[in-house]
User: What shape does this take?
Amino acid sequence: MMAGSASWAQEVDSSALPQRSASEIDATTEDGEEWIPSISLDSRFGYNHTIGGDAAGIGGDGLYLNIDGKISKHFSYSLCQKFFAAIGEDQSVFENTDWLTLSYNVGGFTLSAGKDVLMLGSFEYDAYDIDSYFDMNSMFYNSFSSYQWGAKAMWTNKSESTSFAFQVTTSPFSYAPREDNLYSYNLGWYGAWDCYESIWSVNLMEYTPGKFTKVVALGNMFYVGDLSLGLDCIVRGAKFSSLGKDEVTLSFMPSYEIGGKVRLFGKAGWERSSADLPYDFWGEYLSADDMMAANDECMSTLPAFLPANQCYWFYGAGVEYFPIKDSRDVRLHAIWASNSYTARHTINVGVTWKFDVTRAIQRIIKK
Assistant: This one.
């Protein structure tokens, strides 16, 4: 996602399309370049039950249109559009656009502009929305406004094992991005080797003119055969000297693949936030007492706000099953999630599917 791709997230990476015949390749390429855009519709729905609360039912978790393609040898574009809107609000169509980028690539350099994912070093954060289970996430993940307008410059070495990127976007603290004149400055490092991947970042996020929240985020993924071990550390503060004191989020995400058909996974994390910080990722700017009152009234598994000055633990486990051989276009899942703040638990069972529009059209034309 952070590179502007509409592919599935790392932990549930989709299988590549089947090899095409020479005649098909000749019909869709020119000068070695692929010109047919990749178009897909992704969706997920399921049954959700809050044990210890009153919430239960069947519903959808989103419908996404993904388009990736090339305009010329050096220019490409990427779009992820949600087909739903906030109830009762008169919103711009761009409110439901996760990303819409135009990129220019030459050699190892890529320049991109548009609406994109704000670059933050975390594998939990890097997951595609439809592959993320809300009640298993950290409170920071669920409160952060990740899709912002801006531009990014990236350099990648020839072996594609290391990338450095600098990004300037509108600030996640901005209510009206075209009016508030608030920005975020993000520096990132991506590493990829056989047994280890990294997503690290340093971020300065403006919450009021001239004042910035400082963030250091270190996302790490280790691979041992079919076992993946993710470890994220995100520290935030009003000053660099208060990093590790104001706010901390730690996440541990193990995952094990069985024969390419089953994935067992879990998550355990710890968060802490100080009271009366000058910034608020929730955008509510409530007092600590008001947040506690909102948490007491909340009947969901997650609290309404991250409780201040408390050690907050979140955890969960799940299983995913891919019924189609050599394909991850259909996925069945069952998950359980809870936390240390409430006595409630979430059970979610559902199905995710990817409809490859491009492949379907090609097959129709071929027949």
About this structure: The helical segments are 22-28, 123-126, 139-143, 177-180, 288-297, 357-366. Residues 288-297 form the longest helix (10 residues). Residues 1-28 have pLDDT under 50 and may be disordered. The chain is about 10% helix and 50% strand.
